[in-house]
Amino acid sequence: MDLLDDLLETHQELSKKSKNPKKPLMAELEMKIAHGKAS
């Protein structure tokens, strides 16, 4: 799995289903990255 592709896909998913557009997408991505590194 390519990390960059995964992040792009995640960003698109978050953009699509974001119910709160004011919530920074980068924060979501950083959380995902941190979770990915932890697991």
What are the defining features of this structure?
single chain, 39 residues, mainly alpha, 2 helices, 74% helix, 0% strand
Describe the structure.
Residues 1-26 are annotated as: Disordered. 74% of the residues lie in helices and 0% in strands. It has 39 residues and is mostly helical. It has one domain. Helix 1 (3-17) packs across helix 2. The chain is globular, with a radius of gyration of 10 Å. The model has no long low-confidence stretch (mean pLDDT 75).
Domain count: the total is 1
Shape: globular
β-sheet strand percentage:
under 5%
Number of helices: 2
Question: What is the makeup of the main sheet?
Answer: none
Separation of the first and last Cα atoms: 15 Å
Q: What's the average pLDDT? A: 75
User: If you compute it from the alpha carbons, what radius of gyration comes out, rounded to the nearest whole angstrom?
Assistant: 10 Å
Task: Tell me the helix content.
Answer: over 70%
Q: What are the secondary-structure elements, in order, as H or E?
A: HH
Region (Disordered): 1-26
